[in-house]
Amino acid sequence: MTIAQFAILGGLLFSVGVYGVLVRRNAVLVLLSVELMMTAVNINLVAFGRFYDNISGQIFSLFVIAVAAAEVGIGLAIVLLIFRNRSSANVDELDLLRW
Question: Which domains does the chain have, with CATH numbers?
Fold first, then answer.
């Protein structure tokens, strides 16, 4: 496979993730779309690292995976607390943090 195929796959996955963030109303699905965007970034990092015969792409990919795991833990905890208080995970109804 060529580098262009990986770049196109990463671009398509990232585009689907951006679409999901902009269109979805459920907070859990928004977090899922952010994870999809991070997966697209990981695909591109590993593909370009392999293309240039450099291990830095894989190392950066591991950092992105660690950040994604932390984001899922904290983001899901925040969504669950908001769901307990509001009994809704709709992003449009979240004015809880507004002054």
Answer: 27-89 (1.10.287.3510)
The chain-wide mean pLDDT, for the chain, equals 86
pTM, two decimal places: 0.80
How do residues 13-44 score in pLDDT, each as one tens digit? 999 999 999 998 887 888 889 999 999 999 99
* CA distances for 86 relative to 5, 10, 80, 83, angstroms: 44, 36, 10, 5
From residue 16, give the alpha-carbon distance in Å to each of 24, 71, 86.
11, 19, 29
**Vertex 43: Cα angle to 39 and 46 (nearest 5):** 130
